[in-house]
Amino acid sequence: MNRAMIHEAGHAVVGMHYGFNIAGIAITNRLPHTSISDFDAPEKTADQRYIFLAAGIASETLATGHYDQQAMGADQKLIYERGGSVITDYLAAAQEILRANEGRLNRVMNQLSLNSITARVEAQFSSDPDSYELLSRQELDELWQGG
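Now predict its structure.
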């Protein structure tokens, strides 16, 4: 399974656990990301944000035993910008949430992996082959509910 899909699945599951408004998971300019419209909303705590940002490497660590140092750079930067510390300080909390939602995490990872193959092929015939949706909010909701 693609490490980027494992990473984004972690963000999505922790985000949904905390009730963030996740619009979906997409590739934009060849980079995967989980879109959240209320990331800095006042009702969310700083720790919730930091744990969400650490969830990508938490998912990678659970799935593979380690994480991509380079890939976590953007998440670490966002933590620092919001006054947090090193990303690994939030790793255990993110892993705890992911373990508690293991079935959901596996469903999201599997669907992301399948969708990424189809989406990459379809994107080659679009006007922007470097940007495409992988999972919509509706699909994430269905996976969260067990569908």
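The beta strands are 22-28, 31-36, 132-136.
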